[in-house]
Amino acid sequence: MYINSVYSRKLATQVHEKHFMPYKILIIEDNPDIAKLIQLHLKDIHCEADIAMDGGEGVRRFNQGQYDLVILDLMLPVMDGLEVCRQLRASARYVPVIMLTSKSSELDRVLGLEIGADDYIIKPFSIPELMARVKAQFRHIEAMLKPATEPLPQRLRFGGTGNGLVIEFDKRRVCVNGAEVELTAKEFDLLSHFTRHPGRVYSRMALLDQVWGHSYEGYEHTVNSHINRLRAKIEQDPATPHYILTVWGVGYKFSGHET
User: Fold this and answer.
1) Rounded to whole angstroms, how far apart are CA atoms 74 and 53?
2) In tens digits, what is the pLDDT along the chain, a chain of 259 residues?
3) All domains in the chain, ordered by first residue
4) Bridge partner list, 122
5) Element of type H or E holding 115
6) Where do the H-state alpha helices sit in 2-54?
7) Distance between CA atoms of 23 and 125, rounded to whole angstroms?
């Protein structure tokens, strides 16, 4: 068969508005048989789905509609899936993206995640596996509807006044020593998760589950590559990190103290 986050406050508002309503999904796939098969099975789990047959149409439909999730093929006419993902992530609305790819190289998979895909699945794939990935994204959306026992801070600072590391969660903005640094969506989510739980040690599989949306064995290197890039952006000396520490044989932890 062919069918191979901590989210921002904006996303929390979006899912609040969609509570108790069917999820609406945009399928961007140029193979009509695959697209219609996905659409049919999404209907079985009570989802509404629209189909776009090329990347340009996909971006237009996304901008004109209100979707809760995008299933995005990598190889598309007019505009490829990586460029589509870039444009979706430039939108004010943060919508989960599951990327479909027939490419098997690690570079293509990691690049998709770096650009902002929340998950990916390689063709050929099984329908039950795809539906499981879709449901995993929905569980994260639904978790946003649950009231927190304590209000989460919208700004954290680590280090001395006027310098150090500052995270503004509502703006998804990070500054190091007073200068803003550009993070990808997943880099920000990873840093956000660490800084909200300082001192707690996470295995790579736990980070995949809690930041990427679910655990998928064999891809712990995705966590490693994201942490290396994050260290390069926020640490004074990435070789001897101050904030994100390796706990040998276990995983990683955030060591900063809030100021």
Assistant:
1) 12
2) 333 333 333 444 444 444 446 899 999 999 999 999 999 999 998 899 999 999 999 999 999 999 999 999 999 999 999 999 989 988 877 788 999 987 666 666 667 777 778 888 888 888 988 998 898 888 766 765 555 455 567 889 887 655 689 999 888 899 998 899 998 888 898 999 898 888 888 888 888 878 876 655 556 777 888 899 999 999 999 999 999 999 988 889 998 766 5
3) 9-143 (3.40.50.2300), 155-254 (1.10.10.10)
4) 101
5) helix 106-115
6) 9-17, 32-44
7) 22
49 bridge partner residues? 25
**Amino acid at position 108, single letter:** D
Provide the β-strand partners of residue 100.
73, 121
Exposure of 244 in the CB half-sphere (CA atoms within 13 A):
29
| Of 12, 36, 51, nearest in space to 170 by CA | 12
Q: Which residues of 106-124 are buried (b: 16+ CB within 10 A; e: fewer)?
A: eebbbbbbbbbbbbbbebe
Say if pTM beats, i.e. exceeds, 0.70. no
Residue 14, classed as helix, strand or coil, is helix
Task: Report in angstroms the alpha-carbon separations of 49 from 43, 61, 64, 138, 224.
Answer: 8, 12, 14, 14, 35
Question: Could you give the angle at the alpha carbon of 178 between the alpha carbons of 8 and 226, nearest 5°?
Answer: 50
Rounded to 5°, angle at Cα 100 from 97 and 212: 45
- Token output for 6: 């901590």
The bridge status of strand 69-73 relative to strand 97-101 is parallel
